[in-house]
Amino acid sequence: xxxxxxxxxxxxxxxxxxxxxxxxxxxxxxxxxxxxxxxxxxxxxxxxxxxxxxxxxxxxxxxxxxxxxxxxxxxxxxxxxxxxxxxxxxxxxxxxxx
Length: 98
Prior knowledge:
Elements: E1 2-3, E2 8-13, E3 16-22, E4 26-27, E5 45-46, E6 49-52, E7 76-79, E8 83-86, E9 92-96
């Protein structure tokens, strides 16, 4: 693995260039231009967010689960990270927009 000055990581395997990971180009977190983690091939990623506010959690008197699908609707979310990470290997995979 080689990291260039521009932040691009290049993997070399048996003399062939496999993948280039560009950590400088900003991408939309919901539509990145990659389809899997370039490190491990996993198909899920995450970005770190901060949430603030107050939500209500509903209960039922009979002990059954109450509908709480909207309990987070009143919370404000803010992106706190600059990178998206692979859910499996936890490595940075791309830089995200603010």
